[in-house]
Structure formats: structure tokens, C-alpha cells
Design goal:
The protein is an alpha/beta fold. The chain has 3 domains: about 110 residues, Gyrase A, domain 2 (2-Layer Sandwich); about 110 residues, Four Helix Bundle (Hemerythrin (Met), subunit A) (Up-down Bundle); about 150 residues, Rossmann fold, CATH 3.40.50.300. The chain is built from 14 helices and 14 strands. The strands form 3 sheets. The chain has a 6-stranded mixed sheet. Helix 6 packs antiparallel against helix 7.
């Protein structure tokens, strides 16, 4: 029997502890003030050890195979205090249970055919998702839509293999039927197209869960640091009338609606003989090209920096902000996207909203239907190469090698779904899961 804390460690209103394995119902029932004999319903019970009541908990019993992992399961919803959780964990260990390994519950789910391997991989991606689009793509994979597409392509490969095998068996007796060859060529082309569509409609997960970054740049005393603090709603960066106060990158996390990003303040860009300040400016220019979005901050005394910044940033997503509107310069200027006052707060809320909307759209491919990882992408690519090789073999009537290429292509799709996966592969995949999953 295994157990794991399924919620983050720390003070909270509720903590969720999962237990799984044959006999877990009996073990837990023996520790309750009143036994539970119904599955799939939530009950309020006192959980007791020999020393006394550990906590008043909500519990749900699940009967195999109708549980997340396909095993008998119990979910305990306790109060989230560290002392409460520690006491329950220690008690479960006394009952002879062990703490689950990372991803062990989901690995059991795959072993018990509750979900395919690619669906299980997307569980981790869903947890790492930080915006609605990433969630939508992850859920599409977990719900089985991606698996269904792969299975359909696999079925087409099986049909073509049957055709090829029949040609191998009967071609020596009846000769080659040109119509059959043409038909098999059409079937193979259709498989190649469907694999290509699947690959093109999928987005790699490399950037999922990674925070977007927003960098403020501009001349000294343009009010970058003041605007940085105003956007955060608190003082995080030192402000001064002395040029060159900010000499390093200062970072703070921002969350607006569902958009999460890192906001960076930076050294003012100017010609300087100060070695430390010059180093900071060089860092700004280097980092600007790697940002999700750059906010160029100017005031009415340095409008010429707009043209300079556009030349430096080129294809980097950026917006131009005219600061210090409280000094009376609220007129529109060519190239300015937002007019604000970091001092009074004028226009700052609109700026934050605009930044969040831009961040959500930067590098966002709304046409993609699924998320796949590098392992899955390589399997689709490999399956496609095998089918292309098969088409070539069909054209020269080498049906045995064509059938072998299809066999290799199907094997890659089987690996994608996880119907024939080694223990080593499963161990590598689930090693990066959180303990309670």
C-alpha cells in the first residue's frame, strides 16, 4: 500500500492525502470512529491513532477499478496545518504503508489501462500550465482526443499491412495487379498526410509552465524604476533623480487575471565611463533580445530614444510608453502606445492590462490542437519516415520491405500510446512527476 500528500506542503485550509492498494479500506476503516461501507461518497469521520484523534477528516473510498489509478483507493481531506499532516503521515507509516514514488499513482493508472502513456505524460504538463491555452491543449491530450487520432492512424497502417501481406502471398502466382499497387500507394499517402497533420497540429511542451518575461528599458531618469514600482503596486526598485541609480536587473513576479509573468527593471541606456554602470547597460541590451515583451519608457525630454530603441529591438515584441504625463505632456506622439504617469498612477492600470493581453498572445499558436513532448514528436517523425520509405518500396514492388517499414511505423505509434513500453522508459517518464500524482 502506498500514500502521498497530493497538495503542496505548507499551511493551508485543507490537505489531501491519497492512499492506494489492496487492503487500504480495511486499514483506514479500523482507524475511524465509524466505518465507511459505501464507495464514491464523502463522509466526515474522526481519524484515530492509539494516542487519540489525529483530525476530523472528510474521506472518500474508491473501489477498484473505479479510481484514478485503478486500485482500491482512499482520499483523506484533512486540515492543512503542518502538525496535522505530519501526524497523519506518521500514522500511515505505522500502518505499514510507504510513501509513493514520484508519479506512482499515474503510473499505476497506465498499468491498469485507466489512461494511455501519452495521456499520463500530459498530466504533468497540465499541472505546469500557467494559462488557459496551455490548459486547453493539455486537457485535449488527457481526455483521449490525441490518443484517438494516433489509434486511427495505427488502424490505417494495419489495413495497409494486410494489403501488402496479400501481395507477398499471391504475387508469385497471379502476378502484380497494378490497380492494387495504385490503391496501396493512395493508402500510404493518406497515412503520411494524417501523420503530418497530427505533427503540424501539435505544439511542443518545452515552453509550457515557463513564465513570460517583460523588461523595462529606457534612458536614465525616464521613470523606469518608478513605473516598475507603480505596476507592482509596491516599492521594489530604488528611485532617484541621480542618473544611473539602477545598475543591475531587478525582477519581480506579476499576476494579472490568469496571466503570470516576470517584470524586470534595468539600467538606463546611455553613454557612460562608469565601468559598473556600463556593464549593467550591456546586460540590458543583451537580455532585451531574449524577452517575451520589452517596455520602452521615455519622457518628453528623450523622445529621440524611440527611434533608437526600435533599431535595437527590431523583431523583439515591444511597446513604447510615454511617462511623466503629470508634468503636462499628455499629447500624442508618433510611435507612442501608452501615456502614463508613474507618479500619479494615471494610465498604469490600462498599461498593465495591455501588457497582460500582449503577453498572452506572444508566441501563442491558437491553431494548435494538442501538446506533445520531445519523445512523442520524435515518434511521430519516425513513424512518418517509415511510411515515406514504405511508399518508395511499394513503387518498386518490394512488398516485403514495404511491410517491414509499416511494422516499424506501427511500433513507434505503439510506443506513443504506451501499449508496449519498457519499465525503464516508464521510470524515466514518471520520475519528474510530483509525489502525490
Amino acid at each position: 500500500m502506498i500514500f502521498a500528500l497530493a497538495t503542496p506542503v505548507g499551511k493551508s485550509a485543507i490537505a489531501v492525502i491519497r492512499v492506494a492498494g489492496e487492503g487500504c479500506h480495511k486499514k483506514i476503516n479500523s482507524s475511524l470512529d465509524k466505518p465507511i461501507n459505501t464507495f464514491g461518497q464523502i463522509f466526515l469521520r474522526d481519524l484515530r491513532s492509539q494516542e487519540g484523534v489525529l483530525d476530523s477528516c472528510m474521506l472518500v473510498f474508491y473501489k477498484s477499478p473505479k479510481s484514478y489509478c485503478g486500485e482500491d483507493m482512499v482520499e483523506i481531506f484533512s486540515h492543512g496545518g503542518l502538525g496535522v499532516v505530519k501526524g497523519i503521515v506518521g500514522f500511515l507509516e505505522q500502518l505499514g504503508m510507504r510513501e509513493a514514488e514520484p508519479g506512482e499513482f499515474t503510473r499505476l493508472s497506465v498499468a491498469n489501462n485507466k489512461m494511455s502513456l501519452n495521456e499520463a505524460e500530459m498530466v504533468s504538463t497540465l499541472i505546469d500550465s500557467i494559462d488557459e491555452h496551455e490548459v486547453m491543449l493539455s486537457v485535449a491530450a488527457i481526455s483521449g482526443a490525441l490518443s484517438e487520432r494516433v489509434v486511427r492512424v495505427g488502424d490505417l497502417i494495419d489495413l495497409l499491412r494486410v494489403e501488402l501481406e496479400s501481395q507477398i502471398d499471391f504475387s508469385d502466382e497471379d502476378g502484380v495487379n497494378e490497380e492494387n499497387i495504385d490503391r496501396m500507394g493512395v493508402m500510404c499517402n493518406d497515412i503520411i498526410k494524417q501523420l503530418g497533420d497530427l505533427r503540424n497540429n501539435s505544439r511542443l511542451v518545452d515552453d509550457v509552465g515557463e513564465k513570460k518575461s517583460v523588461l523595462l528599458v529606457g534612458p536614465p531618469n525616464s521613470g523606469k524604476s518608478s513605473l516598475f514600482n507603480s505596476m507592482l503596486g509596491r516599492t521594489r526598485s530604488i528611485t532617484s533623480d541621480i542618473a544611473g541609480t539602477t545598475r543591475d536587473m531587478i525582477e519581480s513576479e506579476m499576476v494579472f487575471n490568469s496571466n503570470k509573468f516576470s517584470l524586470f527593471d534595468s539600467a538606463g541606456i546611455r553613454d557612460t565611463n562608469d565601468e559598473i554602470e556600463s556593464s549593467g547597460i550591456s546586460l540590458v541590451l543583451q537580455e532585451a533580445k531574449n524577452q517575451s515583451l520589452v517596455l520602452v519608457v521615455v519622457d518628453s525630454t528623450c523622445l529621440d530614444f524611440i527611434a533608437v530603441s526600435k533599431k535595437i529591438l527590431k523583431d523583439v515584441p515591444h511597446i513604447i510608453i510615454l511617462n511623466k504625463s503629470d508634468l503636462g505632456d499628455c499629447d500624442s506622439h508618433p510611435g507612442v502606445d501608452f501615456t502614463v504617469s508613474a507618479k500619479t498612477g494615471f494610465g498604469v492600470s490600462g498599461l498593465v492590462k495591455g501588457v497582460a493581453e500582449l503577453i498572452s498572445s506572444v508566441n501563442q499558436d491558437k491553431e494548435r490542437l494538442f501538446l506533445i513532448n520531445n519523445r512523442q514528436a520524435k515518434l511521430i517523425d519516425g513513424a512518418t519516415v517509415c511510411c515515406v520509405n514504405c511508399l518508395e518500396k511499394i513503387s518498386i514492388e518490394d512488398f516485403e520491405l514495404a511491410a517491414e517499414e509499416l511494422k516499424q511505423s506501427r511500433a513507434r505509434l505503439d510506443d506513443f500510446i504506451g501499449s508496449k513500453s519498457s519499465d525503464d522508459l516508464l521510470g524515466d517518464i514518471f520520475a519528474n512527476f510530483c509525489i502525490g500524482k
